[in-house]
Amino acid sequence: MSSSPGGVRPVLFFDIDNCLYSRSKRVHEMMQELIDKYLMTHLALSKMDAWQLHQTYYTQYGLAIEGLARHHKIDPLEYNAKVDDALPLEEIMSPDPDLRALLLDVDTSKVRPWLFTNAYVTHGKRVVRLLGVEDLFEGITYCDYGAERMICKPRDEMYAKAQAEAGARSSADCYFVDDSFMNCNKAKDLGWTAVHLLEPDDPEPAVKASQYQIKSLQELRSIFPEFFKHEDQTDRQHPSANASL
Predict the structure, then answer these.
(1) CB neighbours (10 Å) of residue 234?
(2) Which residues are within 8 A (CB) of 140 and not within 5 positions of it... i.e. 6 or more apart?
(3) Of 23, 72, 89, 225, which is the most exposed, with the fewest CB atoms less than 10 Å away?
(4) What count of Cα atoms within 13 Å lies in the side-chain half-sphere of residue 213?
């Protein structure tokens, strides 16, 4: 583990969607439906053609909107308003006391908790606010839909962007949790320490994506004990979230 002398803390990056909350909430499926509906409306595609185009761009770029912006001149911010920001998250999500307790136990004198998402900033901040943990992260790196050139995981440039924004001195100071095999595999290749999060009933991949594989975020305590407070240091009051990123 990196000691990061000179007061520079390592960074513990957390993905957001299907990572801070369970895939069982079916946010991903609802998002897929909205994306396909958007493509059917704006590109006059059949449902099958919309689905196929969506999957092609997701596989090729890691994010459907990047392919749509490149090849169809779709406005990413309009897309975001009709897709991510249109999700009925208030009906699905609520404060998660177990997640909050885990994040409160992170020793921020030793590591910097940071959000790292392919979503736009409005969606990312909305999710952590609804989960009641927005005050427990020091920042967020997101895919900038308003940029002339979008970059997202698993492109090398996105990891470099996150590393710079979070103030990590080197890849050795970057620790990362994501539900995506592809994103964790890329992080490992770039020298990060990556943790691939599976759902409890997911089959284990034939080859691990990265150095670690878990089925609950609570397992981070045993993987990285040096990043968590000892029992006598931990605030067990778990105050409610009242700050913002």
Answers:
(1) 15
(2) 114, 115, 116, 117, 121, 124, 125, 245
(3) 225
(4) 15
